[in-house]
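Intended use. Records like the one below are meant for learning the mapping from a protein sequence to its folded structure. Do not use them to infer anything beyond what is encoded.
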Amino acid sequence: MKFITIIIALTGICFFACKSEQEPTSSKPKETVSQVKIHEIETIQESENIKVLGIVMSESEARPSFKTGGIISKTFVKEGDLVTKGQLLATLEMEEINAQVKQAEEGLQKALRDKNRVNNLFKDSVATLEQFQNVNTAYEMAKRTSEIASFNQKHSVVRSPIAGKIIKQIMHSGEVTGPGNPIFAILGVGNKDWIIKSGLTDRDWARTNENDKVNIMLDAYPGQVFKGLISEKSSVGGNTSGTFDVNIRFIDKPKNLAAGLIANISITSDRKEKFTVIPVEALVKSNGQSATVFTAQDGKAKLTNIRISKLLGDKVAVASGLEGISNVVTIGAMYLEDGDNIKY
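Structure written out for the chain above:
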């Protein structure tokens, strides 16, 4: 009996010892800390050059024509010729036009005779007031017809409206032309005629001013840089391109130019801009002008929404969202969540 009591006591001691070993020890789990790298936010101020393409054009172009129609009698110039303003370029066969002038003059003389005769009769009370008024009206109409015929006779020649170069002869001697049909295409080639037309985005257009300095590089003259300035800014955007044109005039230009040459333009703007700048790797998510970054505040990662102004190579200019913040997380930002503990 005594032996049995001892066995039961030993069994109880083993039971409580095993139970004590199986009970878990309560302890608070350690918090995870992410190792990251941060970058101090920069503020820079710069005067950025605007780089665009342009095309060389002549500001002076003309396509002269005859006032009246007829057969072209003679042309006095050909393609490639240089012409001066007012120079005679072509004439019409004048037989028909001269006959119209003669007819108008004779009609005017007859109307004058009728007018004088009826005026005398009206003074003697032989002609009526209506006859007097009709004959005076007929005379005025004949006079205007004669003036029109003389005007057409005077403009039955083509003269150059500008000084320039004949780049195309559209019609030749012996051909029949109508009023307003171009005979020649003339391009101004003087020093003051050449311009470069370039299309700017609305933002770049707003940053430029007339007389801003321009560096011009032409593919036709590799390695050479020519000087220019903005002479005019368009007030209307292009219908399809969405750009705004600026005209650039040469200060110094190459010896030879041709319409259609391609120019690489670098415009120096006097308007300085101030940017808040962060590295591009700090961006966690981006959608157009909106993006998110993480900032380090009191040892924790904070998700912050920003608005992008523009990209500057490997950096991003931020328009808003980082006011009062001094840093952003770069390395490790992709693996963070808002509120995570961080070490840097």
